[in-house]
TrEMBL record:
One of its GO terms (biological process) is nucleotide biosynthetic process. Residues 140-164 have a biased composition (Basic and acidic residues). InterPro entries: Ap4A_phos1/2-like, Ap4A_phos1/2_N, ATP_adenylylTrfase_C, Fork-head_TF_regulator, HIT-like_sf. Residues 317-443 form the ATP adenylyltransferase C-terminal domain. SUPFAM superfamilies: HIT-like. It comes from the Eukaryota. PANTHER family: DIADENOSINE 5',5'''-P1,P4-TETRAPHOSPHATE PHOSPHORYLASE, DIADENOSINE 5',5'''-P1,P4-TETRAPHOSPHATE PHOSPHORYLASE 2-RELATED. Residues 1-35, 133-166 are annotated as: Disordered. Residues 115-259 form the Ap4A phosphorylase 1/2 N-terminal domain. Residues 1-27 have a biased composition (Polar residues). Coiled coil: none annotated. This is Uncharacterized protein.
Length: 460
């Protein structure tokens, strides 16, 4: 069985003593951009004797949110279980009344990697070739209208409008608002390519260029854990930084059901054409897969030696993909502060691995604040560093149906988007396929940085 790279992580407790902050958010932002990434054997297991961030300054608590005082209690898993039904109901209403838009896939195909065995899902959404329109009720066809029609339009109640300066700030469109969770708000994604795609945004503005706080991640984990379905799993993802695929500056985590409901005919609700564009054979392969999130099939390769949950693992992929397994004991899952600390420790371990790779990286790598993608499921927390937002390696055509592929967290989870059948065809012909795309927009695997740092190494 192939082994995975393992980097031991530091814990938050070692950095958690109360002391005056010695670094400002601006200084920490500059520090984030000061090191760089390179290449390594993907199947070595490494145990480091110290934490990377033990020797570099940490951000103040108010900036990173790790040790901030609890604003209020987080909702429990039991309290969050009705959320799925609320999302479905609100999705149906929003689609019916033109406040949200679902763009169906023309085709959904699978590409299995010969090297890793990951079953990548590729969907073609022609609507991505066009710029999304505003609320259908506000469209104007440009034709002159008679005064009678004007009077009728004037008598209709006006639709609620989104905040134009910040779409994730009040006033919220009622049909897009699902739930208010104290310092976080749950909203439907206005433009969906998979059914029931929803967001969790911070009530106050916080920057998407900075990592989410452990409180936010703990709440996201509870939402993912509260999802009760035999056929799907809830995946949370976060695009952090300029080349991560983020589309809005206001901090937001996103949630989708995996496999997407329109892939397997899972009753996605209004606006969904169940199973359209996918062959029966491919649908059966997805349904028969033991993992709902394609890239998490690699988690089964991690050696189970009783210490796997205390380590950071690098998945055997042609780019950096760090993961930490999640299995908090019941007592920790129920305690807000303990869950925040648990998730925070895991996240800091992943950032340790990313910073280590940057510090012993290739000088050719771009400087600046790092961009990365975060995936969060019931099983694991992932961090994937990024080098660029778009893949430019497909041959462009004059009709504009084949162009650059924009990659965000979902691509690294195993769900790729193309805008036309022609683009999907070119991706299928690309040597290296999906993993070539992700390696190009990601960061090359690192050399054995523990050797370079003079730390002990153990190969399996």
């Amino acid at each position: 069985m192939a082994a995975t790279t393992r980097l031991a992580s530091g814990t938050l407790s070692s950095f958690g003593r109360s002391r005056p902050s010695t670094i400002s958010p601006r200084q920490f932002s500059r520090h984030l951009g000061s090191a760089c990434p390179t290449r390594s054997p993907a199947l070595a297991r490494v145990r480091a004797s110290r934490s990377i961030l033990g020797s570099v300054p940490l951000p103040p608590s108010r900036f990173f949110g790790i040790f901030s005082a609890m604003v209020s209690a987080l909702p429990t898993e039991a309290e969050l279980r009705p959320l799925a039904a609320k999302v479905k109901k609100q999705f149906d209403v929003a689609i019916a009344e033109g406040d949200a838009f679902f763009y169906p896939s023309e085709a959904i195909t699978l590409q299995e990697s010969t090297d890793t065995g990951v079953l990548w899902q590729i969907r073609t959404v022609p609507a991505l070739l066009k710029k999304p329109k505003a609320n259908a009720s506000s469209e104007v066809d440009g034709k002159a209208e008679d005064s009678t029609k004007d009077e009728k339009e004037d008598s209709k109640p006006k639709k609620a409008e989104q905040n134009k300066s910040d779409v994730f700030a009040p006033p919220y469109v009622p049909n897009l608002l699902v739930e208010e969770l104290d310092d976080h708000i749950v909203l439907l994604n206005k433009f969906c390519v998979v059914p029931q795609h929803f967001l969790m945004v911070t009530r106050e503005f916080e920057s998407q260029d900075l990592p989410p706080s452990p409180r936010t991640l703990a709440l996201a984990y509870r939402i993912a854990s509260s999802h009760r379905s035999e056929s799907t799993e809830l995946l949370a993802f976060y695009n952090c930084g300029q080349v991560s695929g983020a589309s809005q500056p206001h901090r937001h985590l996103q949630f989708v059901q995996c496999p997407p409901l329109d892939t397997v005919g899972g009753g996605g609700g209004r606006g969904q054409e169940e199973g359209k564009g996918i062959s029966e054979e491919d649908r059966d392969r997805i349904l028969d897969s033991p993992t709902k999130i394609p890239v998490e099939s690699l988690l089964d390769r991690i050696e189970r030696d009783g210490k796997e949950e205390d380590a950071i693992h690098a998945l055997p992929l042609p780019y950096q993909h760090f993961v930490s397994l999640l299995a908090p004991p019941p007592a920790i899952k129920k305690n807000d502060q303990e869950l925040e600390k648990y998730i925070g420790n895991k996240f800091m371990g992943l950032l340790d691995a990313m910073f280590r790779a940057r510090m012993f990286g290739d000088a050719k790598s771009k400087a600046g604040r790092p961009s990365f993608n975060i995936l969060l499921s019931k099983r694991a927390l992932h961090v994937i560093p990024r080098s660029q937002e778009e893949f430019e390696g497909l041959p462009h055509d004059q009709a504009g149906k084949v162009g650059n592929l924009s990659i965000n967290s979902l691509g690294y989870a195993g769900f790729m988007l193309t805008r036309s059948l022609e683009e999907q065809s070119e991706l299928a012909k690309l040597e290296g396929g999906v993993e070539k795309v992700l390696a190009t927009t990601g960061v090359a695997p690192v050399e054995d940085v523990t050797i370079q740092a003079g730390l002990p190494t153990h190969h399996v």
